[in-house]
Amino acid sequence: MKIAIVPGDGIGAEIIAEAIKVLNVLDLKFETEFALAGGVAYASHSHPLPEATLKLAREADAVLFGAVGDWRYDQLDRPLRPEQAILGLRKHLGLFANLRPAICYEQLVGASSLKPELVSGLDMLIIRDATGDVYFGQPRGRRTAVDGHFPGAQEGFDTMRYSRPEIERIAHVAFQAARERNRRLTSVDKANVLETSQFWRDIVTEVSKDYPDVEFDHMYIDNAAMQLVKAPRKFDVIVTGNMFGDILSDEAAMLTGSIGMLPSASLNASNQGLYEPSHGSAPDIAGKGIANPLATILSAAMMLRFSFNQADAANRIESAVKDVLASGLRTVDIYSEGTTKVGTCAMGDAVVASIRRKATAG
Ligand code: IPM
Ligand code: MG
Question: Which pTM value belongs to this model?
Answer without folding.
Answer: 0.93
